[in-house]
Amino acid sequence: MKREGYISWDEYFMGVALLAAERSKDPNTQVGACIVDENNRILSTGYNGFPYGCSDDEFPWNRDEALGETKYQFVVHAELNAILNARGKALAGSRVYVALFPCNECAKAIIQAGIKEVVYLSDKYHDTPSTTASRRMLIAAGVKLTRLEPTKDSITLSFKAD
Q1: Could you give phi then psi for residue 19, rounded to 5 degrees?
Q2: Average pLDDT of each block of 10 consecutive residues along the chain (162 residues)?
Q3: Of 159, 155, 108, which Cα lies nearest the Cα of 10?
Q4: Active-site residue set
Q5: What is the DSSP letter of 158?
């Protein structure tokens, strides 16, 4: 008899995206992404952070323009990082799992990469111009938008080898 209470594929891949987000050094927003093919194989992951070679100690994490440079000119979003981290793998027909609904810039990359579904947890910026534009482009391009309704509030990982 098989074990009960195991997580679904969607919860598994969203869990991978959330785990990837734990790599982000952004003090305010940590976002992760996981790209999966039609056979439920992970093709790539990514999280929000600075490009290779740009030290997270030397570039700004600031969000307030009144304080000078902000992170917005420098940070690569999780979705774009996952697409770039795929290093040329065919992403056509794949799904991307992401904690936060994609912005308009990431939507362009998702569409151009041929990703056919966006599975997301939060849409907290739903009414912003960036997210409105993103949704418009994704729908126009025929990308399926799915808000994940998890069956569990959390999943606990342990590093203890009992």
Answers
A1: -65, -40
A2: 90 97 94 98 97 91 81 94 96 97 98 98 95 98 97 87 74
A3: 155
A4: 79
A5: -
